[in-house]
Structures are given as C-alpha cells and as structure tokens.
Amino acid sequence: MMQIKEIIHYLETVAPLSLQESYDNSGLIVGNPSDDVTGVLISLDSTEDIVQEAIDKNCNLIVAHHPIVFSGLKKINGKNYVERTIIKAIKNNIAIYACHTNLDNVLRNGVNQKIGETIGLKNMKVLVPKRNLLSKLITFVPVDHQEKVREAIFQAGAGQIGDYSHCSFNTTGEGTYKALEGANPYLGQIGEVHHEKEVKVEVIFPNYLQGAVVSALLKAHPYEEVAYDIISLNNSVSTIGSGVLGELPEEMPITDFLNHLKQKMQAGCIKYTEPHKETVKRIALCGGSGSFLLNDAKKHQADIFITSDYKYHQFFDAEGQIVIADIGHYESEQYTIDLFQELLQQQFEDLKIVKTSLNTNPVRYI
After folding, report:
1. pLDDT category, 71, cuts 50, 70, 90?
2. Which of 163, 204, 223, 329 has a Cα at 20 to 30 A from 306?
3. What does the DSSP 8-state code read for residue 156?
4. What are the sequence ranges of the domains in the chain?
5. What's the pLDDT score for residue 73?
C-alpha cells in the first residue's frame, strides 16, 4: 500500500512548501502522513460536502488547492464551516492536503501555466520572477573524482538554470593540506604537506535543496574533510514567481478574445474595463487574486490582464493603458483540479484518483 507521505513528497517536488507566500498555510492540514491511502479526492476547496464525498467514494486523502485553515484555530467546536469541516475530517480519518501559493508560484506544472494553456497562450514566462531563492555551492575536488561529485550534486537538484540542467563552472588549481595525527587522508601522508591538483566546481541550487545537495556532495567526495562554501544569491529565478506573461498565436479583436476567454474558462460573466485598443495579443494573467500585479502587467506592455477579485475602485487603475478582465476566483483556478489529476496519474499509475463532482464555487450568477 502507498502511504500519504509518498504522495506529499511527490507534490512537494513539483511545488516545494518553501515557495508558498508568508500568509499561506499549504501542506498537510489534517491527517497522519504514515496512513495508507485508499484513494485521493481532488478538489479546489475543502468543505463539509467535499469530506462527505471523500467518505462516500472511499478516499481518505483530499488534495485541495485552497487550505481550509489559513490562520490558527483557538477552538474547534463547529461554530463555522471551517471548524465543522475539520471535525468531520478527523472523525472519519480523512487527511486534507493543500497545495496553494506554492503551486501558483511555479511555472512548470503550475496554476498559471494551466490557465495559459487553456486559453491558448504561447511563449509563457513568469510575470514577476522571485529573488533570493538561490545559493551557490563552491567545492574543491581531486581531478579524478570531479565527474562523480558533479553528477551526485546534479542528481540532488543542483545545476538547473531555466531550461538547462547540469550547469557548472570548473577551474583547475592546486590544493594543499597537511594531515595531522588522527586523520585518515584520502591522499598524502600524516605530518606532510600534500599538494593535489584539484578542480573548483561551482553550481547553483534552490535554497530548499541545500540539505540534499550538501548530503550528496559529502557522500560522493573522497576527502575526509570536504571544503565547500555556500553563498546566498540575489538572482531572480525565471521559472518561479507571480503571474504569467504570454502571447496569443495571432492578434484577436478584443470582443472576440473576451468571448473566447469566457467560453474557455467557463465564466458566468467577465467584468472588464474599457478597451484601449481594438485587438489583443500579449496577455498577462494571475489565477486567484492578482490585482497586485497590475503595474507589472503594464510594464510588460500587456494588452489585457486576466485575474479575479477586483474591487470597484481598482478598475480605475487601468487608466486607459490596459484592459483588466475579472473572470472570477473559482473560474480562474478551477482547472487546478485537472492539473492535480494529471500530475498524480503520471506519477502513480495504480493510485485511485477521483476528481470531485461538486462545484464549490460560493458565487452564483443570474
């Protein structure tokens, strides 16, 4: 039997928890990670009805986009839907796992890429890449071990830059050391200064992989004492950040595009600002509440910015420079359910995976 923690581990290789926003609460919210999995129910939200659906379909793990708990609960006595959902899940041994802004913040297999694919965008890239997520590892390796050490740290996740893997910089030099009493040197003699031709290997890695990368280095390196430096970088990461910028294959009249958007995103309605031009091609978007990205969409000269949860006065911020299109929060993220299904099915062929049959959108249109 597969355990819950195996599914969690995989999802967190796709969207590491360290990438979630500070206000978020992604991760295992309810449940024992060591429990065997009878089935997975995928949903956008966790509600009492979703928990009941999991019970009815013999699924003891709910994988949802939105966390049912955002802030601490001081009491759990059923006075609101959050507390009732938690109580029902615990009573019925249903685990709830949320993968929220960490999944928003990755481009590959992320929420915004899924929206872009749905509406037919090409050449997608992150609208606002995040910074301070990378470190550089510098180490010194005997020449005859350089390939082994590099491959080990590559396998641990180092050396990835955008769409390129196995990236490193290598310079040859001479290292010196003298092994003291009690040492067990790989090369050289106790009490003698040893000169060794070495390669200085430099690679970058995401901060959340530091433990794995250093562990791989120490395991593959032949020296008893391994010299290495880790330097924090301020570089932005092209595949991690907020929103997406992409292009339509061809320019479209704005009215045709809005109708296309409404149909593809199954929106009950679209609230939008006065078009400033007749056609659109460059598209900026952000699933969920993305108004904070408007100025970035303008900076990149997007013709339209697609998101949700816009307030009345915020629409004025378009200022005739861009079209703001609010398609609704649920509507913008509903295909996350399909994304979860695709990810889990390709990784776990024999796992029972069920998409919810319930529409958890609390908003109705007439």
Report:
1. confident
2. 163
3. T
4. 4-103+335-355, 111-128+241-327, 133-233
5. 87
Q: Which CATH class is domain 111-128+241-327?
A: alpha beta
**Which runs of E-coded beta strand occur in 53-133?**
61-64, 95-98, 122-131
Q: What distance in Å separates the CA atoms of residue 27 and residue 12, rounded to the nearest whole number?
A: 9
Query: In the beta sheet, which residues pair with residue 271?
Result: 326
* Distances from the Cα of 97 to the Cα of 42, 62, 344, 360, angstroms: 10, 6, 14, 17
Cα–Cα dist 230/73, whole Å: 39
Taken as a whole, the chain contains a residue count of: 366
Amino acid, res. 282: R
pTM for the whole structure: 0.90
pLDDT above 90 (res 361):
yes
Measured CA to CA, the distance from residue 178 to residue 176 in angstroms comes to: 7
CA-closest candidate to residue 305, choices 286, 331, 328: 286
* pLDDT(290) > 90: yes
Alpha carbons 97 and 38: distance in angstroms, whole number: 15
**How high is the pLDDT of residue 76?**
93
Burial class (CB in 10 A: 0-12, 13-18, 19+), 173: exposed
What are the φ and ψ backbone dihedral angles of 259, each rounded to 5 degrees? Answer: -65, -40
Mean of the pLDDT values across residues 149-153? Answer: 98
Amino acid found at 292: F
Rounded CA-CA distance 261/268 in Å is: 11
Domain covering 133-233 in this structure, CATH number? 3.30.70.120
Task: Please calculate the CA angle 298-206-218 and round it to the nearest 5 degrees.
Answer: 170
Q: How many CB atoms lie within 10 A of CB 3?
A: 14
The overall average pLDDT reported for the chain is 96
Give yes or no on whether 4-103+335-355 and 111-128+241-327 have one common fold: yes
In the chain, what percentage of residues exceed pLDDT 70?
100
CATH number of 4-103+335-355: 3.40.1390.30
Closest listed residue to residue 355, CA positions, set 57, 22, 109: 57
Q: Is the pLDDT of residue 72 over 90?
A: no
